[in-house]
Amino acid sequence: MPFSFFHLLFYITIIFSEVHAVHEQHFQHASKSESKSNVTLFVFGDSYVDTGNWRKSVGGSWKEPYGITFPGKPSGRFSDGRVLTDYIAMAAASYLGTRTPTAYQWRKGVKRSNLKYGMNFAYGGTGVLDTPVNQPNMTTQVDYFQRLIREKVYEKHDLNNSVAIVSVAGNDYAAYLARNTDDDLQANYSNASLKLPGFTKTIMKQLGINLERIQGLGVKRIAVTLIEPMGCVPVQAASSSYTNCSEVLNIGSKFHNQMLQQALKTLNDKTNSTVFVTLDLYNAFISALNKLTKRASASLGMKNPLKPCCEGKEKGNYCGSVDKSGTKQYSICENPDLSLFWDTVHPSQNGWRTIFSSLRSSLYKLIT
């Protein structure tokens, strides 16, 4: 893949470990007699929840060193291991009787019986709206879902016991900033942010349409992630040598989240229900950052949590880049399991595990 395209993917994608680590007490009280078996999980969004939808021939997530922690080789996940989708499925497994859903791209290569657990329509680099990454945006992902229902891959009994996870919008903002600033993006974020409220409203309008479509197709509970603190991802923190987050971008994240919560309340009020709930990814990121910062300060082997584990050796290189002779042009930290971020945009498996620990109570509300 040409460097410019791959780097752009990573730049605009602003997007846990073992089962015992995610089985919080909320889930332990549920007996097998109380459990809901074969709950169908549908996933929409970007690389934070994508489990392998990019084609192997073009997807950087299918190349080394991605997947080195789990499953030991590239699996299409934008991390060294598991991502948010995996942890949601793992945590809910004993209660919901589900597992990580099949990636849409590979639906024809698995047994029909495996599809009962659901489908993952998420593609890394995509958004609510179109982004420079030529992959299906959220509207198209919902189209795919609707097509499977028309084809009776999923029928009424599947939808009656279904949950949808939606994690999207970070790429929309990154693409917007790239379009509306000069080459020196860091110096112009404040100017671009003046128009962000209007852009946020555009995102909310289309997101609302998509969410209502998912509900109209029969999904009973829909969880939408609040956007992460965009100023804390390494690609933004790099300008301060990974010492600080960009507060301008974090203010933008907070505004988006406020608008999203209002939009979901409006959708719930329409049907006098609580179909739509949020997963607070913003505060989960902040909590994980604070937790790992304290560990690093205590010299417990932790590294600076804002610094990525895998990064290019020189400017212009990125995690996974190689030269013409195939020589690696990136370096990897000694222990990815001590990091928060895997590359310049995406959390490591340890990062997702730590982030998810703050989301369990919200997940419990979703499935009970």
TrEMBL record:
Gene3D superfamilies: SGNH hydrolase. Residues 1-21 form the signal peptide. InterPro entries: GDSL, SGNH_hydro_sf. The keyword ATP-binding does not apply. Keywords: Hydrolase, Lipid degradation, Lipid metabolism, Signal. One of its GO terms (biological process) is lipid catabolic process. It comes from the Eukaryota. GO terms for molecular function: hydrolase activity, acting on ester bonds; kinase activity. Belongs to the 'GDSL' lipolytic enzyme family. This is Receptor-like protein kinase.
